[in-house]
Design goal:
The protein has two helices and no strands. With about 70 residues, it is mainly α. The chain has one domain. Helix 1 packs antiparallel against helix 2.
Length: about 70
Amino acid sequence: MQYLTALHLSDISCILHRIRNEFLDIYQQLLLAEPESSVRQELKEAFLALRLAAVNSSKAGGEERGRGRGDHHD
């Protein structure tokens, strides 16, 4: 029973990760498309820096968790 619960939580985690990435992709497109008068350049730069840090952190954690099991998050 514990194995099935862990499996389902892993599947849910993958789904949420993908939804989050899709949301961030769309938000980034909208943010960068706004003229500077609407969105300050500092905000754009801060968002991109935080997003890059999150992606790098996610990749590092995913490599550790998925090693040897074939798991990955896109």
